[in-house]
Amino acid sequence: MKSLKKKVASAVYKGLLSIKPDVTLTEAEIISYLAYPPDQTMGDLALPCFKFSKELRMAPPAIASKLVEGFECEGIARAEAAGGYLNLKIDRGAFCRSIYDSIADTDKPYGASGEGAGKTVVLDYSSPNVAKPFHIGHLGTTVIGHSLKKMFEFAGYKCIGVNHLGDWGTQFGKLTVAYRKWGSREAVEQKGIDELVALYVKFHEEAEKEPALNDEARAAFTALEHGDPEITELWRWFIEISIAEYKKTYKQLDIEFDYYTGESFYTDKMPAVVEELKEKNLLTLDDGASIVDLEAYGMPPCLILKRDGSTLYPTRDIAAAIYRKNTFDFDKCIYVTSAGQCLHFAQWFKVLELMGREWYKDLVHVPYGTVSLNGEKLATRTGNVVLLKDLFDEAIDKAAAIMAEKNPELAGREDVAESVGVGAVVFYYLSSNRMRDINFVLEDALNFDGNTGPYAQYTYARTCQILHKCSDFRAEEFTPNDDEFALCKTLSLFPETFDQALYEYEPSIITRYVLQLCADYNRFYHNCPVLTAETEQLKAQRLALTQSTNKVLARALELICVRHPEKI
């Protein structure tokens, strides 16, 4: 549809020139005005002419009537004036042929603009806090971030995925104190990260009764910053245990990172940041703490050093951004974190601008809403969490049970069950706009009926089964009926849907597209027999549409981190 819109815009532009030779409107503006009428009787594309009324000094109905005169555009069968609208009917046969050819073209992936050629994007996502569980609160940054990585790769960018682990900060002081008081090496080696979490929760329970424990924790972290050998050894051990656990979940999600460079990686790079801030007179003291005053920009001060000289998140993030720019020379650096950190990112982005780093404008914060569980806020310190591994296990078990009933002879059922179970959870999360707060209800996420991940996967498997039965066909011409044309129109929307999702950093746009494509294909499948079509030409036409759906659906599911098994 993108290419047809360009042709229409060119034809409309010529018509506008005939009305006013010095018209200032551009073809790009005309493309942005083109819309899809809700009622098919109104045409396949519509142009609201009131958009041109002011410049042309004509009433919209008159403009529409004038544009219809002599309107010629390849791919458009008929142009009509209806009130203030120019309604266009597509040449269905030629349109379906062109879409099928575009999707079948092996030289250029359908929907990929190639806009990222020669450009580099760094994506900072997932980034769990070491020694804490990987729970559903981490699902957002992980799957949104990895989906964006896949999207930018598809657009031609060189992508670098960074897991900025939370491996530094006062929480390690808390964990050190808890381990020394109530833990043992044997228990940690036996239970792994679960024991570390239990110790962290116990610290907060005890600190409620004995606040002095918080002072001990702060002192322990300061000792870690100064290289205390015993605490450093414990810290490294906690990190090792945590990463080993996290990688199990990443494997289920088919995620690999290029770098695991946590906050501690930038420890030796932070003094240079502090020194530069001093040299540029940006650093001031406030009650013993070192800050950058941002009052003139409508923001609270950005804290750089605490009173005891310890660093904070902004210090580390600034150092990390400078390191990444020097190392990767990125064109864009994307941070996927919760919306609760919007102020934090706005503050240190502004500090980089004040430091004279012109590339601050290439830093992008992609926020997302909070996740609650059955209406209750998640919190590690209280133990109110649902681990992703447990959620995935439950989803996989349910998928396996359903497949055992529906397809007991299915080969490789365990692998397929994992694809369907994990896919159900990921699809559920990415079905909502990323800024929406999500109340995660397990029953809804694991519902295998309706607009869900399994529904999309079953649709893909259906196309595979048909194509396995008849892979040798030649679609010479297309004479689509209403259901076939509706499916083809939805297929044609994939390129512009992808462009919108990339521009808005919004994977849910693709998820919603997947559901629309599945609905249109299943309607087509039920109304239009494929393998038992009346003629060989009609059979080939419907196989071509099935093959096109198969390819586009596979690509779309890949972009939202959902596997697509050929049999379910």
Give a quick precis of the structure.
The protein is an alpha/beta fold and 568 residues long.
User: CA-to-CA gap between the ends?
Assistant: 32 Å
Could you say what the CATH architecture of the domain at 388-559 is? Orthogonal Bundle
Q: What's the story with the biggest beta sheet?
A: 4 strands, parallel
What would you call the shape?
A: globular
Determine the fraction of residues in helical runs and give it as a percent range: 40-55%
Task: Give the integer mean of the pLDDT values.
Answer: 90
How many distinct beta strands?
13
Total of helices: 22
Rg measurement, Å = 28 Å
CATH homologous superfamily identity of the domain at 388-559: Isoleucyl-tRNA Synthetase, Domain 1
What is the CATH topology of the domain at 388-559? Isoleucyl-tRNA Synthetase, Domain 1
**Strands of the biggest beta sheet: in what spatial order?**
5-4-9-10
Please write the CATH class name of the domain at 388-559: Mainly Alpha
Strand content: 5-15%
Q: Uncertain runs with pLDDT below 50, 5 residues or more?
A: none
Structural class: alpha/beta
